[in-house]
Specification:
Blueprint lengths: L2 E6 L6 E7 L2 H20 L2 H17 L1 H12 L3 H21 L6 E3 L7 E8 L2 E5 L7 H13 L2 E5 L5 H13 L7 E3 L4 H10 L3 E7 L2 H11 L5 E5 L4 E5 L5 H13 L9 E7 L3 H12 L20 H16 L3 E4 L3 E4 L4 E4 L2 E4 L16 E7 L2 H9 L3 E2 L1 E5 L3 H10 L4 E4 L14 E2 L2 E2 L12 E8 L3
Helix pairs in contact: 1-7, 2-4, 2-5, 2-6, 3-4, 3-6, 4-5, 9-10
The structure holds succinic acid.
């Protein structure tokens, strides 16, 4: 008998849909199908693959409103953000529809007249993806589009909290003409499906967006079959405000970075590090603007901050805030909660904390919630030291109009994504990914198709 799992609306705790969890046999069957479909899909010429991706993109846009509504229902983010995410997801399909036609090889001058040397690229094979609940559309297309563009077949396991958006996106890919075995989904618990994926000899690559501990486990488990891996893992982004920064602009950008998706993003500002000379003014301005954010059901007009995805996420946020307050942090706004454990919803009101220091958990752990902790610095070297004092290295932000300060920060911050006077650098045409324990590899940009390609070197002799 099929096992089912429930998908709930995190804004109300109501059941949205029951979804079938695939059995081990069904998952292995899907893997086999993806493997068998590979040679055929890889042989489809790049211009045709590009055309099919463009048709997928068009279908996604035609279904934008309903996809966005599904996303808000299962994830909780405000409808405007979901609509934005459908566009963001589409932009990856569009970008890689074009990159499909730009998979170039090269010719290398040989050291002898009797030889010719060429290098070509070929798709690596069947790719398995595990995607997160925080961006149910964009994190899937950011992986599927380059994989399909490269000629790989693709199978995804969406998060159990938010499978519905992914299922719909894959149906649309099939409606667009992409063969059903070239892009598939399977449902189930991450640990179960993850083990089946990593132990499969047919899967040549695992691509994952999620937490660092799970990513480490997937890397370890992929070793036995020496799979390629791309890992987009946790972040703990610093946001530095220099003494010369345009404070009003910095406040707006900080709010965009910090409170998007209720702070449940890997790249959101997690430690706000402000020069002591502008600390009070910046903190007051930020708190004043944050108070205006409307918390509520993402389907209601004007909502800026939706619910926290689940109890576990909520408890982590509350524990970090309480720990900071116990250790001397000052609450400028927030520290208010609207929850109903019985019904199953958890809202955290946007919170700004001042006088935060390095003894507090919030300065060391990813929060994944709408809490902005502010600390201060005197010299720019100290700001860099605070910023880099983490095993994470995904995104960092700074605000300064002084080009020397800006270049110094760019050169010294150990992060894969840097926003200089920019709280929203993510884009399909740019490489997204982290240093240190934030991950391996890049997604997006021209870099994002490389992990789906093998390099084949040909040396022709005796000419
Ligand atoms: C993430 O939080 O993992 C992705 C955010 C983005 O693509 O901007």
């Amino acid at each position: 008998m099929a096992t089912m799992f429930n998908v709930y609306n995190p804004a109300t705790g109501e059941l949205i849909e029951e979804v079938t969890a695939h059995t081990e046999g069904e998952i292995k069957q899907a893997i086999k199908k993806g493997h068998l479909a590979f040679k055929k899909w890889a042989a489809v010429n790049a211009h045709e693959r590009s055309k099919l991706l463009r048709s997928w993109s068009q279908k996604v846009q035609e279904n934008k409103e309903s996809l966005a509504k599904t996303m808000t229902l299962e994830n909780g983010k405000p409808l405007a953000e979901s609509l934005g995410e459908v566009d963001y997801a589409t932009s990856y399909i569009d970008w890689y529809a074009e990159e499909a036609k730009r998979i170039y090889g090269r010719t290398i001058p040989a050291a002898s007249e009797s030889k010719r040397i060429t290098v070509s690229k070929q798709p690596i094979g069947l790719v398995a993806a595990i995607t997160p609940w925080n961006f149910p559309a964009a994190m899937m297309t950011r992986k599927a589009a380059p994989a399909l563009a490269a000629g790989c077949t693709f199978i995804v396991k969406p998060a159990v909290e938010t499978p519905l958006t992914t299922i719909r996106l894959i149906e649309l890919a099939h409606e667009a003409g992409i063969p059903t075995d070239a892009i598939q989904y399977v449902n189930g618990r991450g640990s179960v499906v993850g083990d089946i994926f990593t132990s499969s000899e047919f899967i040549r690559k695992i691509t994952f967006t999620g937490s660092t501990p799970v990513g480490k486990q997937l890397i370890k488990n992929s070793a036995d079959t020496v799979k390629h891996v791309t890992m987009e893992l946790g972040g703990h982004a610093p946001l530095i405000v220099a003494e010369d920064a345009d404070l009003d602009f910095a406040v707006t950008q900080t709010i965009g970075s910090k409170f998007r998706n209720a702070g449940q993003t890997c790249v959101c500002a997690n430690r706000i590090i402000v020069h002591e000379s502008v600390l009070d003014v910046f903190a007051d301005k930020l708190a004043k603007e944050v108070q205006k954010l409307k918390v509520g059901n993402g389907l209601e007009e004007g909502t800026n901050v939706g619910p926290i995805i689940n109890k576990k996420g909520y408890e982590k946020i509350v524990s970090q805030v309480n720990d900071a307050i116990e250790k001397g942090a000052q609450v400028l706004t927030g520290n208010k909660y609207d929850t109903d454990e019985e019904k199953g919803y958890y809202f955290v009101h946007p919170t700004v904390l001042k006088n935060v220091n390095s003894t507090m958990d919030i300065m060391h752990e990813e929060t994944f919630g709408p809490v902005a902790p502010i600390t201060s610095f005197k010299e720019i070297e100290e700001a860099v030291e605070i910023a880099n004092s983490t095993p994470f290295g995904l995104a960092a932000y700074f605000f300064t109009n002084n080009y020397k300060t800006g270049m110094y920060l760019h050169d010294h911050l150990d992060f894969g994504i840097i926003g200089w006077n920019d709280g929203g650098p993510s884009a399909a045409h740019a490489p997204f990914g982290g240093m240190k324990e934030s991950g391996l590899g890049r997604e997006g940009g021209i870099e994002g198709i490389e992990p789906y390609l093998e390099t084949k070197y040909l040396s022709v002799g005796n000419l």
